[in-house]
């Protein structure tokens, strides 16, 4: 029996389909700094969690659609941005309830520095287990160590959020507090509700005037 060759158009259609599938699985590279970033006063120190370890052993790529703002609630004198970055780099923040076994996030900010621990095209574990907050947002932690200036930390965080908005074309309405995300625990499905985080920008546990003032600050840096 003679097999009839498939028409060229069908072969082409198959190639296009396979190509699209491959592209959808591939990583979107991290967005480059915006044109405005070069003149800005913020400096980002990269201190990435080692690739393949401590929460980066399973890489899940992400196209960020949101920016989630947290505060560390770590009031120790030395708990600045650098200390948190070093902690994540050596797998020092374990989580028995999430899918990775570790907490991970993208940036930590204090009154004088910003440390980046995860690439912005990789999902972290900082917000809501397997929810949208982790699947689609860049996590920023603000430090609360003793002696750290909250005003300077907020200003630096606002500048960073504005820069990330420019890089990823994220609208201001998608800059959200951790409180926005409902937390359904990964290992047992327990609903933990919403966290009062960042607590010093919430009003009775919800976004109110203090959160709006922060958003205005972000807008001011666009
Ligand atoms: Zn938080």
- The CATH topology turns out to be Lysozyme-like
Supply the number of structural domains.
Answer: 1
Tell me, what's the shape?
A: globular
CATH class descriptor: Alpha Beta
The CATH architecture can be given as: 3-Layer(aba) Sandwich
* Biggest sheet, spatial arrangement of strands: 1-4-3-5-2-6
Q: Could you list the spans in which at least 5 consecutive residues all have pLDDT below 50? A: 18-24
CATH superfamily grouping:
Peptidoglycan recognition protein-like
Class by helix and strand content? alpha/beta
Largest sheet: number of strands, sense, barrel closure: 6 strands, mixed
H/E series, N to C? HEEHEEHEHEEEEEH
**Radius of gyration computed on alpha carbons:** 20 Å
- What percent strand? 5-15%
Ligand inventory: zinc ion
- The whole-number mean of residue pLDDT values reads 90
Number of helices: 5
The percent of residues in helical segments reads: 25-40%
Number of strands: 10
Distance between the termini: 69 Å
Walkthrough of the structure:
It contains five helices and ten strands; from the N terminus they run αββαββαβαβββββα. The protein has 222 residues and is α/β, with parallel strands linked by helices. The protein is globular, with a radius of gyration of 20 Å. Helix 4 (150-168) crosses helix 5. The protein has a single domain (42-220), classed as Peptidoglycan recognition protein-like (Lysozyme-like, 3-Layer(aba) Sandwich), CATH 3.40.80.10. The structure holds zinc ion (ZN).
